[in-house]
């Protein structure tokens, strides 16, 4: 079984590399295949980092338009996936920085929440909603590394390749991000 | 204050939360929209560096190597010429007289050294001098006689972040990955060059400075603030950006960078002031979380969240007006009533008063007490009013309809000129545009950054320039 699986995997890699080669030469259909194959995953990463559909949608579109435009300049086509991931991460980082929201929740509503800030949070403590709010407090770099590790299941080496940092730095940042998430959860109003 | 215990997280809980956040995959229609957008987008050509099998980032190294080679060649040429001259001297007859020798010795001296010669002093520069407001000059263009002149500057179709001013040019950051900063020529109202086209992995954004300098935040692995020489488009100064500079706000005021705390921080908020001359942190101000900052004379002002108020990103910010002492950086807080705000809706300062945009009105705020002293009703402003001040006037742009930056409505809007003394609307300038992203004043003109296309197809954006009559 093992040799067959390896052969299939090798064939998929070769096919993908061929698509990247063709797309880099201006073949829109080849690029479309790459988009079809990867947009779900890219969207999931962006959605997890940014936390809402609209921003994630903008980011993913930006990622692929950028990738299409810059692809001829990618020297090593075998690194397409890591390169695309890096563009995704940067698009999300830009999205977080430039997020322009109109804040329409009235002050009164928030005052009520603030009157007993722990109540709601205690209710949800430990569940995904509170954790998600805590995650929203993290900066882009911490969100990114947690998403790549916990959602995408990427290895330290793979994250290091995507983010172009040393594996040791990945481990340290992962640990920092996790600690920051814990602190953020505490700040969200966890019981003392 | 009791110490809070950190929460022990499990891998499973983090994974579950992230799976929830990630959703099920790309929504319907996104892939088709991407394919359409790609079809409308040209690929960049492979650069000569790429064709040589070199990385884009190798450019500077190549230039360095080429420079060293050039120096070596020049040194070799000088050595060759020198040795030939010596050989010539060996065969030449001795000078005919001592007087001739004297002339030869003094021959080089009539050309003065640049450092000592008065003519080597800098000549009058066409660029305006730096002033507290910095950008009030009109540079090369002639202001219109009586009515504002509206020009639409075409920008390459992309995504934009903001407008800056330096060296008698307007600079527009292209927010797309590594796409650079476009220079808009004031005389022709066209993009004449693009600088800082960094590698796609390292976004660079320009920061608006009030001292006629172009500063950018380079978000590579090491986040740096770099000053760009407007003439060459190259960095001529670089300092490390302090922590928080990615997610907190940053303002360049009077030669200093003010760096806000993390956008979601609560409780201990720290603003750092960095001297852009030395890169040193000159002040660390605790317990202030600015949303907007500006300078009025030597005083720096901020709209800042009230102490302990979180910035959730979805609720109205509960704000104070904050004044910083120019020498000691001591903070004076003037409590404001709640203001519905947006990153686009900055404060404006004219004639000693501060103005804030709010839904349906402009509020004049006392800079002594923070109280609202006048409300100026503005129609068609259900989302708020963008404000900007010139030397003596207040300009307002009402925002209604969609809240997103890439809006879908296409109604006509009006730019309103307000007399700060009376609160009267003095002039209405009709504009056709979508929900604007930025309204700023520089070089005698108002500049509005406005997307003008369906964001699912392109990121088309126009820069609208409104040249004001003299004294406007």
Task: Give a description of the structure.
The complex is a heterodimer of chains A (192) and B (472). Chain A has ten helices and no strands. With 192 residues, chain A is mostly helical. Chain B has helices at residues 11-22, 30-39, 48-51, 59-91, 98-106, and strands at 149-154, 160-166, 169-174, 181-185, 190-195, 204-207, 214-219, 223-228, 235-240, 250-253, 256-259, 270-275, 281-286, 290-296, 299-305, 319-324, 331-335, 348-350, 353-358, 361-365, 372-377, 384-389, 394-399, 412-418, 425-432, 438-442, 445-451, 461-467. With 472 residues, chain B is an alpha+beta fold. Chains A and B meet through α2, α3, α4, α5 and α7 of A and α1 and α2 of B.
A few lines on this structure:
The complex is a heterodimer of chains A (192) and B (472). Chain A is mostly helical and 192 residues long. Chain A has helices at residues 2-24, 28-50, 53-70, 80-98, 107-115, 117-124, 128-136, 140-151, 156-163, 167-187.
Helix count of chain B equals: 5
Rg on CA atoms of chain A, Å: 20 Å
CATH class of the largest domain in chain A: Mainly Alpha
CATH architecture of the largest domain in chain A: Orthogonal Bundle
Distance between the termini of chain A: 54 Å
Helical segment count of chain A:
10
The beta-strand count of chain B equals 28
> In percent, how helical is the residue content of chain A?
over 70%
Shape of chain B: globular
Itemize the secondary structure elements and their pairings:
The complex is a heterodimer of chains A (192) and B (472).
Chain A: H1 2-24, H2 28-50, H3 53-70, H4 80-98, H5 107-115, H6 117-124, H7 128-136, H8 140-151, H9 156-163, H10 167-187
Helix pairs in contact in A: 1-2, 2-3, 2-4, 3-4, 4-9, 7-10, 8-10, 9-10
Chain B: H1 11-22, H2 30-39, H3 48-51, H4 59-91, H5 98-106, E1 149-154, E2 160-166, E3 169-174, E4 181-185, E5 190-195, E6 204-207, E7 214-219, E8 223-228, E9 235-240, E10 250-253, E11 256-259, E12 270-275, E13 281-286, E14 290-296, E15 299-305, E16 319-324, E17 331-335, E18 348-350, E19 353-358, E20 361-365, E21 372-377, E22 384-389, E23 394-399, E24 412-418, E25 425-432, E26 438-442, E27 445-451, E28 461-467
Antiparallel strand pairs in B: 1-28, 2-3, 3-4, 4-5, 6-7, 7-8, 8-9, 10-11, 11-12, 12-13, 14-15, 15-16, 16-17, 18-19, 19-20, 20-21, 22-23, 23-24, 24-25, 26-27, 27-28
